[in-house]
Amino acid sequence: MDPTFLLAGCGKDMTSFFSMTFLFLFFPACLLVYSIVPKSWKKYFLLFASYLFYWFVSGTLVVYLILSTLSVFLLGIWIDRIQMQMKEHIKELPKEERKIAKQKFIHRQQRVVFLGVLLHIGFLLVVKYSGFFVGNINLLLSLSKSTVVLDIPQFAMPIGISFFTLQAVSYIIDVYHGLVKCDRSFFRLALFMSFFPQIVEGPICRYSQTAEQLWQAGPIKYNDLTLGLQRMLYGMMKKIVIADRLNPLVTGIFDKSNSYGGVIILLGAVCYTIQLYMDFSGVMDAVAGIGQIFGLTMPENFERPFFSRSISEFWKRWHISLGAWFRDYIFYPVTSTKRMKQLTSSARKKLGNHFGPLVAGGIALFCVWFCNGLWHGAAWSFIFFGMYHFTLILLESMTAPAAAAFNARLHINTDGKPYRFMQIIRTTILVVIGELFFRANGFMAGLSLFRRIFTSLSINELSLQTFHKLGIDGHDILIVGITVIIVFIVSLINEKGISIRETLAKKNIVVRWGVLYALIFYIIIFGAYGFGYLPVDPMYAQF
């Protein structure tokens, strides 16, 4: 069994918010009980429901979450006490002595923060990546003709540990920086860490974004209920009608890639990119919808990434919470160190105002994308995926002046629709190439697939017989195509600054509920479920 993804609980199918168990048992029961308990008990019921959900999907491994929450609770109080001691101590000192005394207290806080980061990130590295590291050590030993073979450790890992670990680390660091005050209510902090809609796939929330909202749990409002259900159903359409219907094709191509030529492999890469987006963004729609029903505004994790004009813009629109976490807790801390500032100053003198800062920025960017790749999984294909996007973003920054000069010389209107369309197409192609390696069964398999796109092209492969072999038919293709167009049109309208949900909210009840029922029937008629379809677990849950 893959040690990075273990469901030890009795409710495995509840990892999907679109499963029958979740939709018709757990969630309705939560809404019913939440609605009837007194306001003062609603927050405690949400906490109970969150831990019950986590116990269903992870069983006794819920202890990981409890220990993580307990540790950040105590570490936050520890940091807060040092800060209070510092204030009391330095106010009695002469002005000239305060700076030195303050620095000593700051160093004490930093040691506590280091301990917290070491505990959480270190533990994650051990249970999630030790097998990968030991496996590579064994490979090096075998290449050196050594007879030593190290045992590869196996650890039981609960779902979502990568997500709540990053939330825990962000809380500790934010308390240290004074961005949030340490929480002395263990239950409030526990609810922030465990809120059941977000714990499977995120978004990676900051304490300042959701903790107080959750603790102020109020009655369910009619407007929040209808808008939340709309958002859930829209996400369900993406997931069940598109992502799950594409799953047999994508799995068939990548698991038996040697049986197909370049055209089918390219088709597989495109379809996987669509599948991943529809799956992940569909789940995020469900998370946001469930949150809205409970009166909670969740941070958005997607902002129409396939309208991006560059790779850097794409990653500002895709998995926004993860990108923001890496930016705030890796990129900025690395670039703000004393040595990096000195390096930037020195490089600026030698390389100029544009290329000089790119030296330190490039080092920080490398750290971000190495961690990003490794965060997604313990495999060289994921590390390559990170390095691929690191290279593209760094090249964008390095070539920006030359590109601007070239466009100016040729009088190219960079704000015109043709140029923007060309940039979007270029960015999408680069993203699809990256996802090919991301989905491939290993780095070498990814290289083989990429090479075959250019060396084994045959349009004759595209036939209904091939699609039947891959588990889909013309009916599936038509449904997926129509639904992708629907999502594209909705995204295009939203990209133009027109909120469809706000527009619908202003319509009369017939229109609002008509859209709701239309979504329900569309999913019932065209969703991929029932005989012949296997339930597909949320794709990002494994990361």
Record the SSE blueprint.
Elements: H1 20-36, H2 39-58, H3 62-90, H4 95-143, H5 161-177, H6 186-194, H7 207-215, H8 222-255, H9 262-293, H10 311-317, H11 320-335, H12 338-376, H13 380-409, H14 417-439, H15 443-455, H16 464-469, H17 474-495, H18 500-505, H19 509-526
Record keyword descriptors for this entry:
0% strand; 543 residues; 3 domains; mainly alpha; single chain
Short description:
This protein is mainly alpha-helical and 543 residues long.
Structure overview:
This protein is mostly helical and about 550 residues long. The protein folds into three domains: about 210 residues, no CATH class; about 180 residues, no CATH class; about 130 residues, no CATH class. About 75% of the residues lie in helices and about 0% in strands. It has 19 helices and no strands. α4 packs antiparallel against α5 and α9 crosses α15. The longest helix has about 50 residues. The chain is globular. The N terminus is likely disordered.
